[in-house]
Structure formats: structure tokens, C-alpha cells
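Many introductory courses stop at the sequence. We go one step further.
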Amino acid sequence: MDNQIVTIESPAALDQTRPANMSGAQNDQMMIDLFIGSRKSDNTKATYRRAIKAFTAHTGKTLATTTAIDFQSYVELVSADGANLATVSAKVAPIKSLFSYAQKLGYIQFNVGAATQLKKASRMIDHKVVSESDLKKFLAAVGKGSNHHRAKTQTHWLLVYCLYATGARVSEYLALQKKDVIKRDGKTVFNFRAENTKGNKDRSIELPQFLADELNHHIEIDEDQSPDSYVFNRFYAGKSGPLTRQSVNQMMTRVCDAHGLPRVTPHMLRHSVATHARAAGLPIADLAAKLGNSVQVVADFYDHNDSSAAFETALL
């Protein structure tokens, strides 16, 4: 047998085969900033930045020198102590996206996160669903308060009831302006504009009449009638102050603690209405349109038998 000579390319030759760096980033921090800047939601940007900071602190390496073993060891670290899949995904998915983004732009040659497949977080939503009975108690508790604070508690009640009734994200609600409240065929409709939605698509949701009446009254008594002013821009009429994501969470926590109820968060209201509506037979395409998600995502999370009771139409 004739001897065969195998030529091994030099590292320099390999470098020539790499795609051109089209990102413009000269270092990892520039690449990370570029990636995070490509995300739309401020909340997503903050979440991604925290996740990436934790990962890079763990590896102590640059993106280009990080290996698949480094990536897998981090996944094992965040998966320890019985962490649920949703928590693991929240910590790891941003890292996978970063490596994919950096590779596509030619900043790195290999996407070491591609070899690790995260388990889907389907059928894990039950513990984030508020039962109909607890939901009724919570809504009643939110609406309670002395006469001195009636306007304030009424605004809280309206906000959380609207969150449940429409299944929208709290960030979408806090971005609603008066011009986004539309009258259509005698109905009141929330118009969630594309620039404020996670899916970058306009979405309209009709309110039940009793909530529409409360909302219209809330808007009428607001001193600021500018179409660009926010619908939920203050806790009660006549007292200025921004209604933030944190303040909504804090308010809901205070209500639950004060009345001995299980903790409820804004996103739990979204999961709850989706689960309840699907259990009641709402077509999956209609539910997907309401939530602003794809049919596949809704099917993964909500299209299964759950332990909650059937949706009570009297609630809405």
C-alpha cells in the first residue's frame, strides 16, 4: 500500500475559512451589548444581561474560548438542587441565544450552546395557575379598603381584573395609553401596539362590558386627558406617580399576605386565564391570538388536562 500524505491545515489557514466578522464588535462586551440591544423588551434585556453575567462569571472565559464542556457544566450547575425546567431555561436560554447570534454574525466560529438541548417547559405550568376559588378571593381582597382609599383600591382592582380578563402581559398593560383604548361597534377594546408587545404584532382585545364601564370611569376622572398619557399611570386620580412593574408586584403581594392568600403575580394571572379558558374549550387558535403567542407555544403550555376546575363564566 502506498503511503498517503495527509496535510493538516495550520491554524492560520483555518482562520481564513471563518466567516467575516460582520458584527463590528471588537470584544465580548461589545458583542454582548449588541446582542442585548437587539432584544425589544426592557425587561427581557435586563433578564438576559443578568443571565449572561452569571454565565461569564462562572466560566471566566471569552466567548471564543468557551467550550461545550464549559457550557454543559453550567447547565448542570443551574439544574442542581431540583431546579425546575422553567428556571433552568430562564438562565440558559439567553446564553444559547447569545452564542447563536454571535456565530451568525461571524464573531465566533462555533456555537457551543447548540449541542445542548433544553427540555421543554410544557406541562409545568400548573403550579403557576390560580384556582378559580382563590382567584375570586384575591379579586375581592384587592377591592377592599377604607373609603379614604377607595379610588386607589378601585384602580388596583381594575388593573388586576383586566390582567386576568385579557391575559396580557403586565408590561403591555403599563405601556397602554389613552389612545390605545378604542370604541369599536359599541365595545371597548384595548389595542396593544406592536412596539409594546413581545411578538412585535398589534393585538386587540375586547373587554367585558362591566370592566369597560369601570375603565371608562377611571379614564374620565383622570386629570390628564392627553391621548398619550398612560391608562394606569397613577394609583388614584389626582395623585401623580408612575405605576411600575415592581409596584404592581408589591401591591399584589401585600394583598395576598394581608388576607392569608397564596401568592399571586401578574404573570400567574396570564397563565390562569389561559389554562381556565382552554379547559373550558376555547379554540387554541383563538387563545393564541388573545395571548399574542404562536399556536405551537400555546399548545406546549396549555393544551393538556390540568388539575384546575373548569372555567367559570360567571367570573367574567
